[in-house]
């Protein structure tokens, strides 16, 4: 049977259909073009037609077309005045061979330099006897490589490899050294030692770990010595020292100073992902992500970590102001791999990751279930007394009294329904069982994630291409939860002429996720059984919304079972999501002169998702809806306003964005001492977000039919007073089934950035950007205010008086000052309101309007004033690092402020708050040993950030939230002074007086204890290369923060260790580890004492990676493989905390005492 759902996100609107059609046609054209591209050479192409000219003029023309420099004896070249040469689209070695034909000159290419060498004249009567013949094949990554220069060291004897990589050369004897060289590749010297066949694997010239030739800001590329801003970069080799499988953010943790990545510590429910602290209260906190020069609105999962070539973070105003109103939180610039000229190269990479199930035996849960159960039941039953049982069974009051089973048992005992012996026996039976093993068996499994990635690249000087396909499939640790993701990307460069080039990039990603409602074990009481004696699903307290005794009453009356059965719900509820991400980029660059060019380009992105949530009529979701909306017809039955059948909720979300940019670039060295690098341009940007949620009720998944429903009636329905059987509200709100949102944010910007360098020692920078948006207010004094920066850098090591310090390679001092901006969207220049309705009058359907926010005519960007001072150094050519100080003062932050009540409210969100971040950063990279077959590199990153609220209106200081003079995430507690002879809790007030605890004393004597957010983070990485093997390890540290321990509460769902160690009889107070009497344990008071506030600093052994490369082995050569690499990695291996409880926030909760590791295996093949 075919099922045609009523809404399908893949049924595209005409505009999107046309765009997708264009993408498909473009992809076909690109692939067809790639197949026609000749990849016969790795070199620059030269076209020349010269007759009867000097050799010097020919060399100048070659230099003009290729950029290569020549070194030669002028007497040898000036004497050659009459040569002729005609070539078209030829490579450099071919042109040189023709130009030097018949001359006593040979050439040698090293990097971008060509050396011409005069051959030694050989006397006729002393001929050289070439007695030894050598042949072989030259390859690069397993691919035959032509036009490689092969010569006998110390002589003029030489040849070139053919198109199929083969070469042949005659040598004077069998003990010579052959030299193999090619532009952009390492020159190799190989001793013949009697061998007649020698195969060679060429290697590209790759900068070592400390070298970065150019730094990309997304708008321009600058030399590191010219940079005045705070920039940190990680290259491909550093990034891929660990195995990165599904996301790239994890691979950056503690690798770049100033970037804080921590998924285990949250601020206001968000994991920490920030650059140099938090600079906003209500705006965006995450850094701006830029991919290949353009900001992206897509989910970070759309970035394939296998494609990353480098990651750069821009931290201060001089570096990031060019991004204007989105730069306060810093910028992460991602450069993805691009093609290189040459034969097609294929890389295949596959990983499999395994994560074991949780080991609940190692959790800090109470092992003596009976005592905790008795304490729990005693608290509630003693409070209500013997009347509790009457309440539980009462037809009117029953819905309002819902307690865990031990309380129900104790209530029956107190009411005399069962004997004390029966109470004890029932409670002991509950305490003897723990559902942790059954939970693991029924709901958990070993998580497995597999990835496959293949990329193809190649081309020549006229056209380059890079294609990549990536698949990720996995099963999570919870049953019936899995995800699959496929991604296809392509990037190409067309050099249409010497002046015009075009870059085009396409990306398509589709993901499908299946989810089922697996309960959190922390929401299940340990004594609750998930199955009955016959293996059938059993109900649990959480989400049942009704005690089991009253549930029997409503079922007898004809309503539905209102209890929640986790094992049944897994099979009756499904949630399937499909997400499609598209990205198209295009850049056209026209070269006016060597120094001046124009760039026009842009990016279009679209992310569209559809979520289908299906709950059958057997699910608790639907059963509780039917009960809630049932009306007593007072004739022995019920009217079901919520129909029987399944519930199908469909949610479609759509994000569309584009950026169009026009930019002029000028980069020139003037009169040797003056270098200018300037850009100026403008941008248009638009971001549209919209979503629509709707539901079908009474749905049949087989016939695809559904029942008609009076939705207006349900919208205004209330069952208060309508039925004696009315249960509590369902745990899923009806209003959540229907929702519509739309937002359109438009921006127009102009910008410029200038870097001037004098004598290659002193650099000065300035940047300016003006952003306008429909988010702005109407007050003219805030219009067109620019964000700007200025910076300076001094390359001290290039001063003449520093030339004697040969061990000092780099010493640069830099400073910058300027302003960044940030976008917060919880205030608008218009009034924000939403429709409402009347909950209490079912017949009144007059729409209402709820005022959510006042119009803010003075709305403007949140602004961050940024000061940065940095020192960069490198010594002994193998140790480099930097030290930085910064201050970020963020003002005009959106936050609540008092307003005139006559305007419709007491508070409004306006630009009035401020916060400051001060910090220090240190980075060190040292290659302690660097030999051919053994090297050792260490990376050290340390960062300190102190955050302080400067201005904020807090209407209730007792909440201790965002207190002026304290950091965000501040903790306040009081001094716990132990317990007295009656088990009462004591407190020491601010005057040092010990008193019996009262809520008033609690409020009046709170003092600052520290921040929940780490103020210090550190990463130490070590990589040791030993021939074909390397070992990599990463240690992380997070410190300078505090955390609050949970109190061992007997009323908790899963009580912690020590839950029974509370005061029971006089004399217990003599034990310092004894807790106060029971009533304090289930309140929040004890947990706010300094006794339960501890140092939260911790270390983790993040990654240990081992790799083995088969590159250059005989079997790999025979198989035509450039490289075969195997890796194994353990992640999240171990943690230790700096508190006596050894509670590490890395575990995710206090109950968990260990880390669950992930083991990953990788195979990487290139050919």
UniProtKB/TrEMBL annotation:
Q: Name one GO biological process term.
A: siderophore transmembrane transport
Q: Which residues form the Secretin/TonB short N-terminal domain?
A: 68-119
Q: How does it sit in the membrane?
A: Multi-pass membrane protein
Q: Which GO terms describe its molecular function?
A: siderophore uptake transmembrane transporter activity
Q: Which domain of life is it from?
A: Bacteria
* Annotated GO CC locations: cell outer membrane
Q: Which cellular compartments is it found in? A: Cell outer membrane
Q: Which SMART domains match?
A: STN (SM00965)
Q: Does the keyword Repeat apply?
A: no
Which UniProt keywords are given for this protein, alphabetically ordered? Cell outer membrane, Ion transport, Iron, Iron transport, Membrane, Receptor, Signal, TonB box, Transmembrane, Transmembrane beta strand, Transport
InterPro entries recorded for this chain? Beta-barrel_TonB, Beta-barrel_TonB_sf, CarboxyPept-like_regulatory, Plug_dom, Plug_dom_sf, Secretin/TonB_short_N, TonB-dep_OMP_SusC/RagA, TonB-dep_OMP_SusC/RagA_CS
Q: Give the UniProt family note.
A: Belongs to the TonB-dependent receptor family.
What is the protein name stated in its UniProt record? TonB-linked SusC/RagA family outer membrane protein
Supply the source organism for this entry. Mucilaginibacter auburnensis
């Amino acid at each position: 049977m075919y099922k045609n759902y009523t809404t399908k996100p893949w049924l595209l609107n005409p505009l999107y259909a046309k765009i997708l059609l264009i993408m498909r046609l473009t992809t076909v054209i690109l692939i067809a073009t790639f197949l026609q591209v000749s990849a016969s050479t790795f070199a620059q192409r030269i076209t020349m037609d010269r007759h009867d000219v000097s050799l010097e003029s020919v060399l100048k023309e070659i230099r003009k077309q290729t950029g290569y420099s020549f070194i030669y004896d002028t007497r040898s070249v000036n004497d050659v005045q009459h040569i002729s040469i005609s070539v078209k689209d030829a490579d450099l070695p071919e042109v040189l061979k023709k130009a030097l034909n018949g001359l006593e000159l040979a050439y040698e290419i090293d990097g971008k330099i060509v050396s011409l060498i005069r051959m030694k004249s050989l006397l006729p009567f002393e001929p050289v006897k070439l007695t030894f013949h050598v042949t072989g094949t030259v390859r690069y990554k397993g691919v035959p490589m032509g036009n490689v220069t092969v010569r006998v060291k110390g002589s003029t004897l030489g040849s070139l490899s053919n198109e199929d990589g083969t070469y042949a050369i005659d040598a004077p004897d069998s003990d010579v050294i052959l030299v193999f060289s090619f532009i952009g590749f390492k020159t190799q010297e190989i001793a013949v030692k009697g061998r007649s066949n020698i195969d060679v694997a060429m290697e590209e010239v790759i900068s070592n770990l400390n070298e970065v030739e150019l730094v990309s800001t997304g708008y321009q590329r600058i030399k590191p010595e010219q940079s005045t801003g705070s920039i940190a970069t990680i290259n491909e080799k550093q990034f891929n020292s660990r195995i990165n499988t599904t996301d790239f953010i994890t691979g950056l943790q503690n690798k770049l100073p100033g970037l804080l990545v921590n998924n285990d510590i949250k601020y206001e429910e968000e994991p920490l992902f920030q650059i140099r602290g938090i600079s906003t209260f209500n705006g965006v906190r995450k850094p701006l992500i830029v991919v290949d020069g353009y900001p992206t609105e897509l989910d970070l999962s759309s970035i394939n970590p296998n494609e990353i070539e480098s990651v750069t973070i821009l931290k201060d105003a001089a570096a990031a102001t060019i991004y204007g109103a989105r730069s306060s939180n810093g910028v992460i610039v991602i450069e993805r791999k691009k093609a290189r000229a040459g034969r097609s190269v294929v890389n295949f990479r596959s990983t499999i990751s395994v994560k074991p199930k949780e080991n609940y035996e190692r959790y800090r849960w109470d092992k003596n279930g009976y005592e905790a159960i008795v304490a729990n039941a005693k608290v509630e039953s003693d409070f209500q007394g013997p009347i509790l049982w009457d309440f539980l069974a009462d037809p009117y009051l029953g819905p309002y009294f819902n307690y865990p089973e031990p309380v129900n048992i104790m209530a029956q005992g107190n009411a005399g329904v069962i004997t004390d012996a029966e109470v004890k026996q029932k409670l002991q039976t509950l305490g003897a069982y723990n559902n942790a093993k059954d939970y693991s068996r029924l709901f958990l499994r070993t998580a497995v994630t597999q990835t496959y990635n293949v990329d193809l690249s190649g081309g020549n000087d006229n056209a380059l291409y890079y294609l990549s396909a990536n698949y990720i499939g996995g099963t999570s640790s919870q049953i019936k939860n899995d995800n699959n993701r496929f991604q296809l990307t392509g990037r190409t460069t067309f050099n249409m002429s010497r002046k015009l080039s075009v870059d085009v990039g396409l990306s398509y990603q589709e993901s499908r996720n299946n989810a089922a409602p697996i309960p959190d074990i922390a929401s299940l009481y340990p004594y609750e059984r998930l199955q009955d004696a016959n293996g059938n699903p059993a109900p649990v307290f959480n989400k049942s919304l009704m005690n089991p005794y009253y549930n029997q009453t409503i079922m007898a009356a004809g309503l539905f079972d209102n209890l929640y059965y986790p094992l049944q719900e897994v099979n009756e509820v499904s949630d399937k999501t499909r997400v499609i991400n598209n990205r198209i980029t295009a850049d056209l660059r026209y070269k006016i002169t060597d120094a001046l060019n124009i760039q026009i380009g842009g990016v279009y992105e679209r992310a569209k998702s559809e979520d289908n949530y299906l709950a059958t009529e057997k699910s608790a979701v639907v059963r509780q809806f039917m009960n809630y909306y049932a009306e007593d017809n007072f004739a022995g039955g019920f009217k079901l306003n919520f129909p029987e059948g399944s519930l199908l909720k469909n949610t479609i979300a759509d994000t569309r964005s584009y950026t169009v940019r026009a930019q002029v670039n000028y980069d020139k060295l003037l009169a040797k001492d003056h270098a200018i690098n300037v850009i100026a341009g403008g941008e248009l940007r638009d971001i549209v977000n919209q979503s629509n949620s709707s539901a079908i009720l009474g749905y049949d998944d087989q016939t695809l039919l559904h029942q008609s429903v009076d939705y207006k009636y349900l919208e205004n329905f209330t069952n208060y007073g309508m039925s004696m059987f009315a249960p509590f509200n369902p745990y899923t709100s009806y209003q959540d089934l229907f929702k519509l949102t739309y937002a359109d944010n438009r921006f127009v910007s102009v910008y410029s950035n200038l870097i001037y360098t004098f004598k290659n020692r002193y650099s000065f920078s300035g940047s300016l950007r003006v952003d306008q948006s429909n988010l702005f207010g109407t007050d003219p004094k805030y219009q067109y205010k620019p964000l700007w920066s200025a910076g300076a850098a001094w390359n001290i090591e290039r001063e003449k008086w520093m030339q004697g310090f040969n061990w000092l390679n780099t010493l640069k001092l830099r400073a910058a000052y300027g302003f960044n901006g940030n976008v917060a969207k919880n205030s608008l220049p218009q009034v924000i309101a939403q429709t409402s309705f009347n909950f209490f009058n079912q017949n009144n359907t007059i729409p209402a309007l709820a005022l959510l926010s006042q119009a803010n005519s003075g709305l403007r960007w949140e602004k961050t004033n940024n000061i940065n001072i940095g020192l960069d150094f490198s010594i002994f050519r193998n140790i480099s690092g930097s030290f930085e100080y910064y201050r970020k003062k963020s003002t005009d932050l959106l936050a609540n402020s008092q307003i005139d009540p006559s305007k419709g409210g007491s508070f409004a969100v306006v630009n009035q708050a401020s916060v400051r971040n001060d910090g220090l950063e240190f980075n060190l990279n040292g290659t302690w040993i660097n030999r051919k077959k053994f090297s050792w590199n260490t990376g050290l990153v340390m960062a300190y950030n102190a955050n302080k609220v400067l201005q904020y209106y807090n209407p209730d200081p007792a909440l201790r939230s965002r207190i002026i003079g304290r950091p965000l995430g501040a903790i306040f507690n009081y001094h716990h002074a132990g317990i007295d002879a009656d088990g009462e809790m004591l407190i020491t007030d601010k005057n040092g007086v010990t008193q019996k605890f009262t809520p008033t004393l609690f409020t009046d004597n709170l003092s600052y204890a520290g921040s929940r957010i780490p103020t210090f983070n550190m990463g130490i990485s070590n990589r040791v290369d030993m021939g074909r093997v390397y070992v990599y390890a990463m240690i992380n540290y997070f410190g300078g923060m505090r955390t609050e321990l949970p109190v061992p509460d007997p009323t908790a769902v899963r009580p912690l260790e020590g839950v029974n160690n509370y005061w029971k009889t006089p004399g217990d107070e003599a034990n310092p580890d004894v807790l106060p009497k029971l009533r304090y344990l289930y309140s929040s008071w004890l947990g706010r004492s300094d006794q339960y506030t501890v140092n939260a600093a911790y270390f983790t052994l993040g990654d240990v990676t081992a790799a083995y490369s088969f590159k250059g082995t005989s079997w790999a050569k025979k198989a035509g493989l450039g490289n075969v690499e195997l890796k194994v990695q353990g992640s999240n291996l171990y943690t230790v905390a700096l508190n006596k409880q050894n509670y590490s926030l890395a575990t995710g909760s206090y109950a968990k005492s260990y880390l669950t590791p992930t083991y990953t295996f990788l195979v990487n093949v290139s050919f």
